[in-house]
Amino acid sequence: MLSRDPRPFGGISRRRVLIDGGRGLALLAAVGAAATGCGNPAPPEPDPLEQQVELARHDSELAAAAAKTAPPALAPALTELAAERGKHATVLAAEVARLSGKPASTTSSTAASTTAAAGAPAPTVADVVAALRSSADSATSLAPTLSGYRAGLIGSIAASCVAGYTVALAAGKAGQ
Q1: 2 in any annotated domain
Q2: Does residue 104 come out as left (phi exceeding 0), alpha (psi in the -120 to 50 range) or beta?
Q3: pTM score > 0.90 for this model?
Q4: Residues 96-125 pLDDT 10s
């Protein structure tokens, strides 16, 4: 005659509980890790060159508007500065697009604000000089934080802005 098993749960041994419990914990850890991987990644930080694109577009529009009402001696320099800063905006936008993998945008958020301020007085040469000085300072402080091509690009743009307000506009003022 078989005697009754003295354990309260007849077919379950301590070894069996430990093995199945370990398997359950391993499964729970694997499912938790998989669920964590499915979450949304943190949004990428904005590219530091995006601000430089907007500054270049703003400077270009400002110089172009100032050229319309500037003295004849300064109008060609302002027109050239507007074209140069427009090229800066294009190159910077292309670099931002290259790094992000998105196509370069040709629209400007400052275009809407410039046309909205059509009733405002025309910008002066001093306004252009102040904008170029601000852009040069911004690019000068950004360049050391970048590396490679991007650092060289921002450094050359900073130098161009400085040359614009110290040489091109100063030479135009001397010729007045």
Answers
A1: no
A2: beta
A3: no
A4: 999 887 776 655 544 444 444 556 788 999
